[in-house]
Amino acid sequence: CFCSFQRVTQLEWQDLFLAVYKIHSWVDDGKKKLHAAIDYNVKEYVRKARERINCHIERGDQVLLRAYINEWTKFYQQTAILPLPFMAIDPETTPPAPLPPGCESRTPRQYRSKTVREEMLETWKKVVFQHISLKLLSAALRLVEAERNGEAVDAHLVIGVRESWVALYDQKDCYYEDVLEQYRKHFEREFVEETVAYYKKRAAQYLAENGVINYMSYADRMLEEEEQRARKYLNPNPESVARLVESCVQVLVVEFEDQILAECPSLIAKNDVEKLRMLYRLIKWTPSGIEVVIKAVDNHIRGEGIDDMKENALTITTDPEKYISQLLSMFDRFSTLVKEGFYDDARLLTARDKVNLIFF
Q1: Full DSSP string of 31-68
Q2: What CATH number does residue 43 fall under?
Q3: Which residue spans adopt a coiled-coil conformation according to this UniProt entry (predicted)?
């Protein structure tokens, strides 16, 4: 029934549980014979699925991905259903006892037999996936690049490849193996490297053709898009997203940090809040950029304060209360700058307070 995907009645399905139990309990080598029967049927189905997929290899990325994901989805759904009657022949899944104190690893590493579901996934991996995984990955990454270029693509085709990669290697062949290692080593690494290569080709040219301010807007927009793209296409965990964003920051921001920071003093002087917010969103990702921003804010407040004292030299001696009121107004003005231009960053508030102590 599995090989042909024929429907079975509820009674036939219930009878299968009883038949498996009887063979397992009463037939010599019943467990071995059941495993052999399952293995044969699964391999036959998977072999035919591979043939159906291979028919689409030369028909374009989306056609190939759609053919693979269609076959994979049907098969993966069956891995949750078919093994149910055969749970009696599955191995124990309890992990081994903890290591004794002072022992760092097990030698040799402890393995166990696979469950029926794991054997099904292993068969798909060996018969289908390992032969076509690089083609699938390349096709998926080309779709992602097309999306970056503004083309409409079916996101589920990329997501399906990633989900397949994770599911096929999310098996504890060894209790201490990192089950996402293969996903990170291949899908995630290639995704990140392709992203970096994409922006390396474009970032410097965009800056040269459009100037620093427009480049800041471009980099800010691209970082937001790539973070959203990472959440959509990479395995849903903070580490995967962080690795992609950090790589984008390196190629979009760190490479041009000096040019971006050079705009900071003039933007502060103009009180250009929107552009300051954009600059801050970029620089906050870099290791030391915020220190340059703090220095620029410090210099601005000192300069404004000294100029104000010079303009109000007479008021300082004749009307102290009026001067104090002016100082408070200046303090509020700088507070607004930090709040609206730099998201109330505590480090910049501290810089404001240190400088204001000079004038109060």
Answers
A1: HHHHHHHHHHHHHHHHHHHHHHHHTTTTS-HHHHHHHH
A2: 1.20.1310
A3: none
